[in-house]
């Protein structure tokens, strides 16, 4: 297209929206107009993007007119309703919610892994994976390309901002309740001090870990666990891959950490895994525990890449590795992956309009 | 023996010692004299046990004279030096440190799993496993008895009191630094606020998780990870069992949580696993996530059993289960298992003296 495309950021006032506005101000500027959109409740607020103040508009059919690319950073139910409306108006939607991730007519894209997938988008919607999947997939995909992945067992330690600003507020409030006290030493004392309102979590998260996140899915799984499994299979195009996840909410503000056991078709060595990870786009290898070098959320938060450390050969299996990854759930886990998808969409837009092609024709 | 045995609690003033004195006051009283022993630094302090004040004695050869059973709740290097001295003086030593756990002449005992092992103690020493192994083994052992365990992949979320009172003090101090601030949103901000002194941990633990605990072992493993593997094999008497662990320190005061993937020789069902766990001594089954029922450290701390929830059949493997366990690392993970061992030792003491038998002759 000749004019620069119009971008809408739907959900500009949320936790991911805040990071998105930063990124749009820092990345190479490919956009014409940028419209900031949110719920009517937040309309009228002024936010800065690309060094200028912009007024937040209420989400409506009108506000989506003439938009070429619409970033949806909103809860699943809002995306389910509004993304098809935006697509019908000619926008390519990049959706950060779970609403369309497993729709066979919606590609699920991680630009480092399956960039080609962005071109085939029959519904005009491209989905970005969940934050825990994104913490895993760049490192796992790089190892898969060399060794062929066969089985993955993941424990995801999820930061509270994965549940939005409500999650952050809940942890901050609970920390203020427990700091400087003797709480945490007796059964239920943290629960009683925090009270009934545990925010978006099923139990207090300060001085605690909560082995549940998301909604109930079949077989005793949480939706986050089922999502990590299904999304990993879809992105790697391995519909029968053995993947199993346990998701645990931890008292960290931002950055998910994953403890990963991965088995491959080929024999593996730590040396070769190190070489692969050290040279993969989007990955930082940080692995010398004797020198104190391993990723932790406190060091990784606010950075773009997936950090990988604690790489070990599984002792009883020459084809398996253990490793530990940290990824900022608001950046690569959300805003960064969405903006990367959006930037790759630009080159696929029809020259004369923002209409979506069935196949890429850049 | 006719008189009631004399007990020494070596390390009475530590984090585990404090819980031990509580337990000795609550359990059926099988002991005659109880001597409280600690480093010379703590000697002279008065502590309550069985409703009476007792003065803490400095560890010395003299203080170990005439002791029938000596509980060692001290760091590994102190146990390595003093446990053989106590044993040479005729005491049966029950050691909570890692010093003797893998010694082939020292039994490693969990009374629910291998009670018979306590009777064969050629060095006069019985070892209690590490706190993470103890959080795992009672539930795993119960499932193993039915299904035959074949492979275990564990991520252990370790509470700070596993590193002693220093660990507790470090987390409390760090929480006071971060509570009520905006810290945790930028790379390194928690690290800068906490400063160089991170206590016994390799990185700040407030608003963070630290994928390292213990000392470096071969192959990139931490001593805690290597220990969990070797101890599980020894207790279950399965020297070739595939076991792999990742240990992560989390900002929880007390109670370790383990995310477990376990594969068995026989096909498994959640229903049968529930039946086994619901009827196993030392285990509480707490597994109805829809009703908010799963174990968390905040609820489990201060209780004796291992709590198990989130039991799921691994989707691609009819022989594997995922589950989540929580166990108080100061109780079953340390003091409780030690006192259980000590109580079982009493019946094996020779009638006329505290001398150890090669084989039990109660």
Automatic annotation (TrEMBL), chains A, B:
MF annotations from Gene Ontology: aspartate-semialdehyde dehydrogenase activity
Gene3D superfamilies associated with the record: Dihydrodipicolinate Reductase, domain 2 (3.30.360.10), NAD(P)-binding Rossmann-like Domain (3.40.50.720)
InterPro entries: Asp_semialdehyde_DH_beta, NAD(P)-bd_dom_sf, Semialdehyde_DH_NAD-bd, Semialdhyde_DH_dimer_dom
Keyword Transit peptide: no
Pfam families: Semialdhyde_dh, Semialdhyde_dhC
Keywords: Amino-acid biosynthesis, Diaminopimelate biosynthesis, Lysine biosynthesis, Methionine biosynthesis, NADP, Oxidoreductase, Threonine biosynthesis
EC number of the protein: 1.2.1.11
Catalytic activity, reaction form: L-aspartate 4-semialdehyde + phosphate + NADP(+) = 4-phospho-L-aspartate + NADPH + H(+)
Residue stretches making up the Semialdehyde dehydrogenase NAD-binding domain: 6-121
NCBIfam families for the chain: asd_B, PRK14874.1
Quaternary structure, from the entry: Homodimer.
Record-stated family: Belongs to the aspartate-semialdehyde dehydrogenase family.
Protein name in the entry: Aspartate-semialdehyde dehydrogenase
Lineage: Bacteria, Bacillati, Actinomycetota, Actinomycetes, Kitasatosporales
């Amino acid at each position: 297209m000749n004019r620069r495309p119009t971008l809408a950021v739907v959900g500009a006032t949320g936790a991911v929206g805040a990071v998105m506005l930063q990124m749009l101000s820092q990345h190479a500027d490919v956009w014409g107009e940028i419209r900031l959109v949110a719920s009517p409740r937040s309309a009228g607020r002024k936010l800065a993007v690309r060094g200028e103040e912009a007024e937040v508009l209420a989400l409506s059919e009108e506000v989506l007119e003439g938009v070429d690319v619409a970033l949806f950073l909103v809860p699943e139910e809002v995306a389910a309703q509004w993304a098809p409306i935006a697509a019908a108006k000619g926008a390519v939607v990049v959706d950060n919610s779970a609403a369309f991730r497993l729709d066979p007519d919606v590609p699920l894209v991680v630009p480092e892994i399956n960039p080609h997938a962005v071109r085939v988008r029959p519904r005009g919607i491209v989905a970005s994976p969940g934050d825990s999947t994104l913490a895993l997939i760049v490192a796992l995909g790089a190892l898969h390309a060399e060794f062929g992945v066969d089985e993955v067992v993941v424990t995801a330690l999820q930061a509270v901002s994965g549940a939005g600003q409500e999650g952050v507020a809940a942890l901050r409030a609970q920390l203020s309740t427990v700091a400087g006290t003797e709480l945490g030493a007796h059964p239920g004392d943290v629960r009683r001090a925090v009270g009934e309102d545990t925010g978006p979590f099923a139990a207090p998260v300060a001085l605690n870990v909560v082995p549940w996140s998301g909604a109930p899915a079949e077989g005793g799984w949480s939706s986050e666990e089922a999502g990590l499994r299904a999304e990993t299979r879809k992105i790697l195009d391995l519909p029968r891959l053995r993947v199993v996840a346990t998701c645990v909410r931890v008292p960290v503000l931002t950055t998910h950490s994953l403890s990963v056991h991965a088995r491959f078709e080929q024999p593996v060595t730590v040396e070769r895994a190190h070489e692969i990870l050290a040279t993969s786009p989007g990955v930082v290898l940080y692995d010398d525990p004797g020198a104190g070098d391993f990723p932790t959320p406190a060091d990784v938060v606010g950075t773009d890449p997936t950090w990988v450390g604690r790489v070990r050969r599984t002792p009883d299996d020459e084809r398996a590795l253990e490793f530990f990854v940290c990824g900022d759930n608001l950046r690569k886990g959300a805003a960064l992956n969405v903006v990367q998808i959006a930037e790759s969409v630009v080159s696929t837009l029809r020259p004369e309009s923002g209409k979506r092609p069935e196949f890429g024709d850049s």
